[in-house]
């Protein structure tokens, strides 16, 4: 392979410390006060008002420029395809949320229209989502369990669940937690808190959604087997539920199990055929809709409910529900769950939104997305919807069928409106086992995420650990507490990595001003008489002590032992001087002139401390602080201690590569004084090395012995 041409350069300038650089660059000390920042943010002008309105109502900016010729056909086909998908998924995910299926249709209508007005992503499909639904289901089962709605039946002499009262209360709970999650999202968006999603790393999100998918599967097993297990809440509830299901498996309804098996196999085969012929078909076959229609027809004709005891959807009222304010008394009981829903829903939506925005070359406003989702949930809560987010499967269909703008989402909402108003009642005989089968088949994408583990093991073991721990915590602690624990663990890994950085001694790459670790490069040479030390992490209270210990270990200097020996020697010298002074006071005049002088010389010679430093020690230490992005007071004290301690044994300590914020931290932390000024700070390691060499040249007669040859500089 032909060697790459290198362009040389030569720079002639003085050695510059931080003070000289500030003077040359004319550093400004003026800082904008808080009151000025507030005044500036509150200032209003015509262009700023227009920008604010367009940012708050994105539909006003893009809809007038909508190209019918380029986008209309693709959006129409995409909207119809997604709307058809919304029907079975909305009803199925309503079961996950423990509310009647019709409320899944409401959740596929109102929020989609609201996102059309306020959302900034052109491709994501807002609506019901499995993870969000199972989280809401957990809240509902905790606050409105079946045991609270038991009525005595005099005919059968047994207790029965009052389904009407139970469902009404569960809808109120779902509306309350959805409304609260929307309020949280709006508030976070208004205070520009969109960056909160950065705490949800990709391994964490994928591990979390995989764990939540297991919760989804377990929660739907009762519909698959036609059994009625007890519902458990709190940590380890998943384990208890699985054990309960295993104990009552003998009570399985055979008719329901057969329906489930046939539905799952049929859906899997149909989806595989759909994928196989995807390139030949203009639009995907609506497999789920066909499954729902066929299952409803068979159930109606065979009368599965009465003959075989197969549980069906039941009454689906036509029309829309009037708006109702959520029950305020429930807010205090769902506030924690609402915040978890707000973070999870936003994290999933913004992640997918950014993927498609990067693919198609437009920008998604993270703060406006928070506000848009918040309005979807808060207004949706008033119309008895449950919390929504973005679905990967529907989004992929919307994008693959030609959807190019938010119009596709609005058209899908119109399809749902048509179904809700006129044909929803036709699905009353749909077996719930078929809806559970739709959920199982739709989760196959999440199950594939287990393949992340070997991939992460090869690329980054810490990310793999985050994935596995998040998955386990989600399983054991449920999705709400599991998310909080997973975020905490993820933050701990960051802290641990800053506590266990890589400490290196740097050397010079020959004939350059570049410095690299000695351990990793064969041609890198140590600078004679100068030790260059670098840590790969920032310096703060959690690792300040380890920084000092690592410096001593890497340099081979036991500073504590040397200082202790020096103090003992100084104390011994003082004792001898005091002893000699007493002898001198008692002697006569002749003895004071002759004898004590010899004795004093002999005594002092024994304890004399040489002014010349130990030749085995470096003459200077350069601390490369280029990886450090901030210093707290403990970090500043650590640097001050290093400079003081090593200075006492004749080793000059200088700092290099300090960022502007770090210099400010040093100044406010009290690092500088009358003796320590910015002359010990240098912009580059090379400047610091040249400074240390020039200082030695001035103080030593044989300075050339320690100088780097000029050709190397």
From TrEMBL:
Composition skew (Basic residues), residue ranges: 574-585
STAS domain sequence ranges: 520-692
InterPro entries given in the database record: S04_transporter_CS (IPR018045), SLC26A/SulP_dom (IPR011547), SLC26A/SulP_fam (IPR001902), STAS_dom (IPR002645), STAS_dom_sf (IPR036513)
Pfam families the UniProt entry points to: STAS, Sulfate_transp
Cellular component GO terms, alphabetical: membrane
UniProt keyword list: Membrane, Transmembrane, Transmembrane helix
GO molecular function, one term: secondary active sulfate transmembrane transporter activity
PROSITE patterns, per database record: SLC26A (PS01130), STAS (PS50801)
Ribonucleoprotein is among the record's keywords: no
Topology of the protein relative to the lipid bilayer: Multi-pass membrane protein
Transmembrane segments: 93-118, 124-144, 173-200, 238-269, 281-302, 338-358, 370-389, 409-427, 471-496
Superkingdom of origin organism: Eukaryota
Subcellular location: Membrane
Ranges for region Disordered: 574-595
Keyword check for Signal: no
PANTHER family: SULFATE TRANSPORTER
Identification of the protein by name: STAS domain-containing protein
